[in-house]
């Protein structure tokens, strides 16, 4: 029997549990992050600060188990006009742990996005979406996407873009009305003379939906 789940804006009261869920899901399951083999405790320290800034922006949605109050899913977003590397002093250091991942995402943006999407309040950027393993196959990711689309439209955004690092997330976004703008296969990407993601199946896709 599926646990009852409720959806709400990420707020300061839930920062710690969302950061823990974000750490658990991405360190274990996200293909690019997993390849770096970063220490979960180190990841969590930076994740908590990042989630704090997402909460301050009031642009992210979380899913909670109504019985345990555990964060079981999240969709973390920022205004496309804001460079996340400048969100706080330690963000650049956090991103430095994942240079190839940052580079492939930047390359995909340069390949697919128009300059006018960087105007403040125009484009919402979904950076991460995740669901805890034991809560999957309950349409939680789909519901998170629908909730964020509704919230973004109320806030005046005209479109949403998202980075999909695997076929499951890409398929989920496409079912929610997103279109694929472009893709970079992991095996083909080279950064500073090395193919860090060589042997990793699939690729990273950029998807978009008009609101």
Explain what this protein looks like in three dimensions.
The protein has 211 residues and is an alpha+beta fold. Helix content is 39%, strand content 23%. The protein has one domain (5-210): 3-Layer(aba) Sandwich (Aminopeptidase). It contains 7 helices and 7 strands, in the order βαααββααβαβαββ. Strands 1-2-3-4-5-7-6 form a 7-stranded mixed beta sheet, sandwiched between helices.
Write a compact overview of the structure shown:
The protein is of the alpha+beta class. It has helices at residues 15-29, 31-36, 40-57, 91-96, 99-112, 140-154, 167-175; strands at 5-9, 61-65, 71-79, 123-131, 159-164, 179-185, 203-210.
Which features does this protein show?
single chain; 211 residues; alpha+beta; Aminopeptidase; 7-stranded mixed sheet; 7 strands
Percent helix range: 25-40%
The CATH architecture comes to 3-Layer(aba) Sandwich
Mean pLDDT: 92
Radius of gyration over all CA atoms, rounded: 16 Å
Tally of separate domains = 1
Strand proportion: 15-25%
| Sheet of most strands | 7 strands, mixed
| CATH domain fold name | Aminopeptidase
Q: What's the total count of β strands?
A: 7
Shape: globular
- Assigned CATH class: Alpha Beta
If strands are numbered along the chain, what order do they take across the biggest sheet?
Answer: 1-2-3-4-5-7-6
